[in-house]
Design a protein that fits this description.
- The chain starts with 21 loop residues before the first helix and ends in a 10-residue tail after the last strand.
- α9 packs across α10 and α12 packs across α16.
- The strands form five sheets. Strands 1-2-8-5-3 form a five-stranded mixed sheet, sandwiched between helices. A three-stranded antiparallel sheet has the order 4-14-11. A two-stranded antiparallel ribbon has the order 6-7.
- It is α+β, with helices and mostly antiparallel strands.
- It has a domain of 132 residues: Uridine Diphospho-n-acetylenolpyruvylglucosamine Reductase, domain 2.
Length: 465
């Protein structure tokens, strides 16, 4: 191994408070990261109690952490403590050889050619939920988006609505809430200590795994072919021809549930909230959907003709990336951005701060989907959208060996949801003032965001026979 040249430590926040930046981190990590980036640059040091930490918000430093120096960083003890009890050996948290083997097995089932088969599910569920909302009604906007994504992930996983599995869905939600509390705990309490929260967690985990195992057993007994991920994973084979063990299958199904449901609900919430507060963009997205779709649902063949719906969704994820911060831990002494990083340092990649860097995005606070619309160059040839040229400066799905395998699925789902909902409904936020984000595991609104529903009748498209 090449010896590491130890450079100067990164600049940053220095305080005599023995807790360091821990109070600020617990109060508002987004504000802490933005102030670090503004005052100290794209690699900034701070402390969480005695624990050294670094905030990263520049594309080159991000590339080092996730790609060129990826062997120097792993998920870290904090994430393993929070996520391993529920996800065990699921792809999101596992490292090393098992991660490589599982990723190789799972990735083919999330490629674009397979995702196109799910467009009908996305469109059908979005319309079904839209049709249930009365004109003039008041709704919890996050709950609406959570309901749609809940039923979509149920059909993707095992061809049934999770509304039919209310007890299972409630137990999984409590499991994920336990993870959130464990991730930000000041004093971690091991799961083996029988506190009320831990007893609830252990009971929920046993019940969730038992119920999902029963669904797997029912599927095996029923036979037949299904267009869902359970069927795909039951049929998947490793290089030696063996199938996944049931324990590993359970780990991956729970991991997929958490990643696909919560993250998608949050992303679609921010898209809907931004469209609600930018009526000109909302009307343009609806007009595009009217022109292309009229009164029918989109198919995979329509996706290329709905660029504004996709651009609006991507721009919403720029301003409010669900994974607003990625966490790693240095496993050895290394360097980052030319600065010395000691073993054990926690590294926070602040996607939120980077996506709002004016050096990468002019007028970064402005919701402008045109950033993600492709154009033409000076020779009249197709050119990438301005925001797509930022490379590691746009990071809604991570990068490198742990890049989200569901990125194509998430983008397709978001595009379809945006188009279907825009042509059926418009939302207007009831409360004045901006919606405040808060960083939990994902980026969510602070408090309940209520909206008024207005129904609209799609115009008849000239493209519809």
């Amino acid at each position: 191994m090449t010896a590491v040249t130890l450079e100067a430590p990164p600049p940053g926040l220095h305080t005599r408070n023995p807790l360091g930046a821990l109070p600020a981190m617990r109060r508002d990590p987004l504000q802490l990261f933005e102030s670090l980036a503004r005052e100290h640059g794209s690699v900034a040091a701070f402390r969480l109690g005695p624990q050294p930490a670094v905030m990263v918000s520049g594309p080159e430093a991000v590339r080092e952490v996730l790609v060129s120096r990826a062997d120097d960083f792993d998920k870290g003890d904090i994430q393993r403590r929070a996520f391993t009890p529920a996800l065990r050996n699921g792809l999101l948290i596992v490292e090393g050889d098992l991660h490589r083997v599982q990723r190789k097995l799972l990735v083919p089932h999330f490629q674009a050619r397979r995702i196109s088969n799910y467009v009908d599910i996305f469109a059908r569920e979005a319309q079904r939920h839209a049709d249930r909302l009365d004109d003039g009604s008041e709704v919890d906007l996050l709950a609406v988006m959570g309901g749609i994504t809940r039923d979509v992930i149920g059909h993707l996983l095992w061809s049934r609505s999770l509304a039919e599995e209310a007890e299972l869905a409630a137990a999984v939600t409590r499991v994920f809430e336990w993870e959130m509390r464990a991730l930000f705990a000041l004093v971690p309490v091991p799961l083996g200590i029988p506190t009320p929260a831990n007893r609830q967690m252990n009971g929920d985990l046993r019940w969730v795994r038992g119920r999902i195992q029963a669904i797997i057993d029912e599927r095996r007994a029923a036979g037949g072919e299904y267009n869902d991920l359970l069927d795909a994973l039951l049929q998947a084979r490793y290089d030696d021809g063996s199938a996944m063990s049931d324990d590993q299958l359970l780990d991956e199904l729970i991991t997929l549930w958490g990643a696909a449901h919560e993250t998608s609900a949050d992303a679609q919430f921010w898209t809907a909230a931004l469209l609600a507060t930018h009526p000109q963009v909302r009307d343009a997205v609806a007009a595009e959907a009217d022109r292309v779709l009229g009164d029918r649902l989109p198919t995979a063949d329509d996706l290329g003709r709905l660029p504004l719906a996709m651009a609006a969704f991507k721009e919403a994820m720029r301003l409010y990336p669900p994974a607003a911060s990625l966490m790693r831990e240095a496993v050895r002494d290394t360097t980052l951005g030319g600065y010395r990083i000691r073993k054990g340092t926690i590294v926070f990649i602040s996607t939120y701060s980077m996506h709002r860097d004016p050096a990468l995005y002019p007028a970064p606070e402005l919701f402008d989907p045109e950033r993600f619309l492709a154009g033409v160059d000076e020779n009249g040839r197709p050119a990438a959208a301005p925001a797509e040229r930022n490379g590691f400066g746009y990071l809604p799905f991570g990068a490198g060996r742990h890049v989200c395998i569901g990125s194509t699925l998430a983008l397709t789902e978001g595009q379809v949801f945006t188009a279907v909902l825009a042509r059926r409904l418009s939302f207007d936020l009831i409360d004045d003032g901006p919606v405040e984000p808060q960083l939990l595991i994902n980026l969510r609104p602070r408090g309940t965001v209520r909206a008024t529903v207005s129904r609209r009748v799609p115009a008849r498209s000239e493209n519809v026979a």
